[in-house]
Amino acid sequence: MNYKITTLAENCVYGKGLQGEHGLSLLIETKQHKILFDTGASDLFIRNARLLGLDLREVDYVVLSHGHRDHTGGLAHFLELNTTAKVVCKEASFFPKFKNERENGLRNPEMFDKNRFLFVEKETELVPGIVVFPQIKIVDKTDTHFEHFFVEIEGEMHPDTFEDELALVLKEEKSLSIISACSHRGITNIMRSVQEVFPKLSPKLVLGGFHIHNAEDEKFNVISAFLGMNLPKRLGVCHCTGIDKYALFRQQFSDRVFYGHTGWVEII
Predict the structure, then answer these.
(1) What are 92-136's pLDDT values in tens digits?
(2) Contact call for residues 151 and 160 (beta carbons, < 8 A)
(3) pTM score, whole prediction
(4) Which sequence spans correspond to the domains of the chain?
(5) What's domain 4-267's architecture?
(6) Sheet holding 124-127, edge to edge
């Protein structure tokens, strides 16, 4: 099976009349289905999609990686445009979220019709070959990114360990690809969790934000060491990974690494 992945919104943009923002939205297409992974921070992903000749009214599902606003900010705009697609997420995405004292969770959650939502807590194959992966075990605590983040549960504030986070897995006969967004629970932990469920499938592509744009060397070194032993054929970084960390990955892993900026198209 072939997959086409298009970055509709991301921090960086080059040419084509497109625009960027601090957010992420990816469109994943098969011959029969279209899956939207996150909706960026605004309706920008819709405007970019139009410029790219993509009709988001044809999307079957929108998957929310977690409840932060730079990934859910365009959801209301999408649901107004597309009146049939289901929204797939963990129910914890609706909890109020904060970075320090600044609220940055799903905007106006009470306005959404929950009949359009599919809440998942276990691996779920949405369409043939595309699996939502909501159970991310933390094996290496160094590769976690919880600092300064909080979540309100039943009126009480708690450190946010991102129980709402999920990833996507694109399966083929002998390989798989992993799509993450911010990897708050750690890209190495995500890869381990996926490999535990699909031990016979080799990693073809890992694409996403790794939340290390301001990370200390220890975190980066843990990730790069793990990737050195488990390197996929293609490593795509974007959003909260940081251009500087992209450059370091590029130095280490050469042309296997690419930056998935707004307008980037990857066919796997």
Answers:
(1) 999 999 999 999 999 999 999 999 999 999 999 999 999 999 999
(2) yes
(3) 0.97
(4) 4-267
(5) 4-Layer Sandwich (3.60)
(6) 124-127, 130-133, 167-171, 175-179, 202-208, 234-237, 257-259
